Amino acid sequence: MTDLLAIVLAAGEGTRMKSVRPKVLHEIGGLPIIAHVLGAARAAGARKIAVVVGRGQATVREAVEAAAPGAMIFEQAARRGTADAAKLARPAWEKAEGNVVVVYGDHPLLRGHNIKAVTEKLDAGVDAAMLGFEPKDPTGYGRLITEGDRLLAIREHSDASEDERQILLCNACALAFRAGVFRDLIEKVTDRNEQGEFYITDMVELANQAKLNVGYAVADADEVVGVNDRAQLAHAEGLFQRRMRHRAMASGVTLIDPKTAYFSFDTRLGEDVTVEPGVFFAPGVTVEAGATIRAHCHLEGAHVGKGAVIGPFARLRPGARIGAGAHIGNYVEVKNSVIGEGVKANHLGYIGDADVGAHTNIGAGTITCNFDGVGKHRTVIGANVFIGSNSALVAPVKIADGAYIASGSVITEDVGPGDLAIARGRQVNKKGRAKELRDKLGKSKGKPKGKSH
Ligand code: UD1
Ligand code: CA
User: Fold this and answer.
1) Cα–Cα distance between 83 and 202 in angstroms, integer?
2) Confidence of residue 56 (pLDDT cuts 50, 70, 90)
3) Residue 96 reports pLDDT greater than 80
4) Helix residue ranges, H only, 194-350
5) Which atom of ligand 1 is nearest the CA belonging to 23?
6) How far apart are CA 84 and CA 426, in angstroms?
7) What are the CA-CA distances from residue 300 to residues 129, 263, 267, 283, 296 (Å)?
8) How far, in Å, CA of 114 to CA of 104, rounded?
9) Residue-level pLDDT at 449
10) Interval 88-103 mean pLDDT
């Protein structure tokens, strides 16, 4: 395969987002837009990646380093246009061999095959090739001026004539060049246009003037949507969710009402998992085969074992590891805890910083008191334990295998294997005193009080 350098442009200010956060850090499926684009560049076979970020955008830098370790990062001090940004990656393209592709950093749904569509044109003999698409509304996009399968120019919307604005085929987000062609032309771009910017798109006309051959490929419009404002962000998110739902169903997942299941970029669901309506998978969730996520659950950073049943109305927070066949029921929250096989915690509870052994039963209303106001502590519960309803387990505390905790207990001391722990006030029954109490209460109710009587 020909060597490929991808130059990803991410220095724009994103003013139309009206946000303190740089545009490319807004998320689609829980992952920054820029990370999606870098993933596409890698999937297209770009062994070298250069990213141009805005001056002082430390947070963008961090996101790039996390998503594409080893990527070269360059800074653009003033937003002078896409060609100016690409030019700033000089140390990356100066000695590049093979092909160079410039990719806009604000197209989160882009995939490797979209970039390959243009690099393959280069391999087939053209000197440069651009990715086009037909958006529903072409306003604001650069128009592709073509003649047969040749691309003559890209005209930015603000510079286009009325006739040119009728063209529906637009510039998407991937512009590929033979490395030598890129080097020859990038310096020739000027800022003589409506916006006074250096347009990377001008390289098409320059290539034609140099008698080079420029081709184009056409992408599915839903794969190359750009994000400039919040409405486009929501549109891209919707398309991404549709993609993830289809992927899940294709791999054997039942989504009872697909449009109400929300996925993150890394959600992994096994075969025969069933997802009921209204479920949100935040990042870091894996669900093994045959498990059921019942209606209205929120899961994040959690692992659900084979055949487990979660919800309805359950919350799994980071570090929740639910064993095979376990049941986590309504209004139960689990955080940073390892729940053994076949455990049942069916109603109302908080299990945080705990280990729960296999086949233990956690009664309704059980709370692990894991935080003492200063630090977090662990609750360790063995296998086959019975925790009676409405118990408070004050960590750090250990409850050994087979132990039995009476309902309403506040457990502050370790419980040995097979022991019964009762930790609550003893009940007092007073013979026949119910009537006496009622009479007393009735009298006080009948008494006139205050000035209003
Ligand atoms: C650009 C294209 C347009 C195309 C559209 C597709 C140009 C001149 N225009 O327009 O043909 O139809 O994308 O979405 O290329 N950037 C920098 N530095 C700059 C300017 C931009 O890094 O000085 C980055 C931005 O962060 C962004 C990308 O380049 O990721 C595209 O810039 P943007 O301003 O969004 O261009 P559009 O007006 O959308
Ligand atoms: Ca854009």
Assistant:
1) 8
2) confident
3) yes
4) 203-209, 230-250
5) 26
6) 79
7) 41, 11, 10, 6, 14
8) 13
9) 56
10) 97
Cα 148 from Cα 144, distance rounded (Å) = 12
pTM: 0.94
**For residue range 365-424, what is the model confidence (pLDDT) as tens digits?**
999 999 999 999 999 999 999 999 999 999 999 999 999 999 999 999 999 999 999 999
Q: 211 C-alpha to center of ligand 1: Å? A: 26
Which of 15, 52, 73, 82 for mutating ligand 1's site (highest number of atoms within 8 Å of CB)?
Answer: 82
pLDDT value, residue 44 = 98
Closest-lying ligand to the alpha carbon of 34? Answer: 1
Nearest to 29 by CA among 345, 242, 322: 242
CB atoms < 10 A from the CB of 430, how many? 8
Please state, in angstroms and rounded to a whole number, the distance separating the CA atoms of residues 279 and 258: 10
CA distance 92 to 183: 11
Question: Which amino acid, 350?
Answer: Y
Annotated catalytic residues are 347
Report residue 256: phi and psi, to 5°: -65, -40
**What band does 453 get if pLDDT is binned at 50, 70 and 90?**
very low
Of ligand 1's listed atoms, the one at least distance from the Cα of 154 is 11
pLDDT at 195 over 80: yes
Give me the pLDDT at residue 443, please. 87
DSSP string covering 374-410: S-B--EEE-TT-EE-TT-EEESSEEE-TT-EE-TT-E
Tokens representing 211? 């008698």
Query: Which ligand is the nearest neighbour of the Cα of 51?
Result: 1
Contacts of residue 240, Cβ cutoff 8 Å, sequence gap at least 6: 28, 29, 108, 109
User: How much of the chain, in percent, has pLDDT values that exceed 70?
Assistant: 98
CA angle centred on 40, ends 38 and 41, rounded to 5°: 65
Residues with CB under 6 A from ligand 1: 9-12, 52, 76, 79-82, 84-85, 104-106, 141-142, 154, 156, 170-171, 173, 199-201, 226, 228
Strands 72-76 and 48-54: parallel
**Distance in angstroms (rounded) separating the CA atoms of residues 7 and 74:** 10
